[in-house]
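Q: Here's a chain of 64 amino acids. Please give me its 3D structure as tokens.
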Amino acid sequence: MKVGDLVSVERKLCKPVLGLILEIYEMKGITSTMRGHALVQPCDPESRLMWASPLDVEVISESR
């Protein structure tokens, strides 16, 4: 999972969302609960940016 990858994000109550990874949150330290989470820009223009857990992300197409 890298910046620029096309991913599918599984959501708890809705259908999966396709989008691009804009940023991956990497924070040093033991107390960080957001380590490895990805900021995803959905392909749907009406959707907002979302943070996605690495467990909920499936890479569809890797960037170069």
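Q: Can you summarize the key feature?
A: The chain has a mean pLDDT of 87.
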